[in-house]
Write a structure and sequence with these properties.
The complex is a heterodimer of chains A (114) and B (110). Chain A is mainly β and 114 residues long. Chain A has no helices and eleven strands.
Amino acid sequence: KAGVTQTPRYLIKTRGQQVTLSCSPISGHRSVSWYQQTPGQGLQFLFEYFSETQRNKGNFPGRFSGRQFSNSRSEMNVSTLELGDSALYLCASSHGGQGSYGYTFGSGTRLTVV
Amino acid sequence: TQLLEQSPQFLSIQEGENLTVYCNSSSVFSSLQWYRQEPGEGPVLLVTVVTGGEVKKLKRLTFQFGDARKDSSLHITAAQPGDTGLYLCAGGISSYKLIFGSGTRLLVRP
């Protein structure tokens, strides 16, 4: 079965712009989580959605937002981009929200802010 | 704030050697997962352990969850170049949130 698909794979944006990243989970998976990965901070939890509801949010500013659609696809948006937002953004899905039993990650979107 | 400390941060060994990676915290986790990540890709789940004291083996990899569910270890026997990658431990603090360790970057030289 198809894995977790993230688009685009690479993105270059200018400071102050906004960006939208997309994630299609494994078919049948209703939970989607987003993580930011940087060399200095490692993987940091952004938020998790289940059946279109945000159930948990990490310690990121309000410029970071997300949503989930009825088909479980998810998007995350970052407004007013800063240089420090440059990172690999990873999406992970799990069946039934049982993230404690393992996630399947996508290949990520590499965002570079210049 | 829950923290997961991994050690060592970097490991460079010769093919055929054994190694152990540690993951420690002061927090209790409902589960502990190990992932391996290769450059340009997302992490791939290796194993999940949920019971204190649990030991799981995956070919040459042995995973252990501490009795108090605060720490874990990953032991690789007879490492091969294909084992090269970033190893990440992740602790489950709810059914829908993981806390990741900082990772151990392993290089296995032929």
